[in-house]
Amino acid sequence: MAKEKVLVLNATGKVGRNVCRALLDAGFEVYGTTRSENSPLASQGIKPVVCNYTIRYDLDKAFKETGAKKVFVITDYFGAAKSNADLEYRQGQDAIDAAKAAGVDHLIFMSVADAEFFNEHVKHLKAKVALEKYVRESGVPYSILRPCAFFENFDDPANWNPLKKGVVKFLTEQDCKYCATYDIGRSAAIQFKNPQEWLGKTLDVIAWQGNLSQVAKALSRVSGVPVKAKLAMPKFLRKLFLKDLHHMFLYYEDENGPRGTPQEFKKVLPDAMSAEDWFRFHGKYSNGEKIVSEK
Ligand SMILES: NC(=O)c1ccc[n+]([C@@H]2O[C@H](COP(=O)([O-])OP(=O)(O)OC[C@H]3O[C@@H](n4cnc5c(N)ncnc54)[C@H](OP(=O)(O)O)[C@@H]3O)[C@@H](O)[C@H]2O)c1
Predict the structure, then answer these.
(1) Protein residues whose CB sits closer than 6 Å to any atom of ligand 1
(2) Helix/strand/coil percentages in the chain, nearest 5
């Protein structure tokens, strides 16, 4: 039987590449958009589609070229939308409209857990709330995934947080809820394969909960070396220079923060990754050195 085709927008980012990987592992034929003519996608078994996912013309062309009737939609406030929520909203609208015009039978929109509960300073999540409404009213068959903080933030050189041996850094030391972007992809695979169960539904992707010293202990168990937990910057600087993220973390740090739980999510994905699982999965430090040393 021919494999079902899925088009993943924004396929080269932290989310996109692992969503593609999980969909491939689940048996789909995966097409991924990138602006680059020389992306590494093909070497990973993903069919590259040269497309700027923020341009409607490119999106229409991508649906036409691939013939995909399933699509995974990611928007991005900080990068592609240049920290402009109205622009992110328009980019998301274009993706949803293009999917509708292409007769897509299942669109998965990636939002954020509890997006509607963050205060007015958390500007980078405003478009997510509006786009959830837009997709619900669009007439396109949809599901929504709402992830919490990514484990990938622990190795994020683009945001000055490369993972180094013996130390783990983040913007909060307190209890926080996490997921692996690969598990966002595994959740998407479950939703695409069970449309009768998932169309019109929303799933919080929350796989593990713990504080930064528990994250450090997890890395220590995997690497076999002691690991220090450190704040990436003191809280007063976080408040001063990263106001938007600071207020997001205040919500995460509150005991009434994200309502979803790993227990709830594991009813859908029982082997969702813990911090320890993620360090094993990720496999290497930012400089390429393996986390699990070969003896
Ligand atoms: N970090 C977290 O903990 C977290 C948690 C929940 C949700 N999220 C959400 O995750 C999303 C970010 O996804 P991500 O981390 O995968 O992003 P990312 O790693 O920053 O991916 C960016 C990709 O977007 C493309 N891109 C960059 N600038 C662009 C531009 N000007 N025009 C068009 N395309 C551009 C690039 O692809 P090409 O160069 O190949 O075209 C790049 O690979 C956001 O919506 C965020 O709210 C993040």
Answers:
(1) 10, 12-16, 34-36, 39, 52, 54, 74-77, 79-80, 112, 147, 149-150, 153
(2) 45, 20, 40
Domain count of the fold of the chain: 1
Q: What are the tokens at 210?
A: 């713990």
Is the pLDDT confidence value at 295 over 80? no
Please report the atom of ligand 1 found closest to the CA of residue 150: 3
For residue 288, tell me if it sits in a domain. no
Q: What is the pLDDT of residues 146-168, one digit of tens each?
A: 999 999 999 999 999 999 999 99
pTM of the model: 0.97
Mean pLDDT of the chain: 97
Residue 57 CA to residue 40 CA, distance in Å, equals 24
Distances (CA, A) of 178 to 45, 78, 273, 279: 27, 20, 9, 13
Task: Find the 206 Cα to ligand 1 centroid distance in Å.
Answer: 20
Residue with the nearest Cα to atom 12 of ligand 1? Answer: 76
Dump pLDDT digits (tens) for 217-230.
Answer: 999 999 999 999 99
Q: Is residue 19 part of a domain?
A: yes
Task: Decide if 223 is inside a domain.
Answer: no
* N-terminal to C-terminal alpha carbon distance within the chain: 43
Q: What is the mean pLDDT of residues 190-210?
A: 98
46: in domain: yes
Q: Given the CA of residue 39, which atom of ligand 1 is nearest to it?
A: 40
Supply the residue whose CA is at minimum distance from atom 42 of ligand 1.
13
Q: Which domain holds residue 257?
A: 5-211+242-282
Q: Which CATH number characterizes residue 10's domain?
A: 3.40.50.720
Say how many Å lie between the CA of residue 293 and the centre of ligand 1.
Answer: 31
How far away, in angstroms, is 10 Cα from ligand 1 center? 7
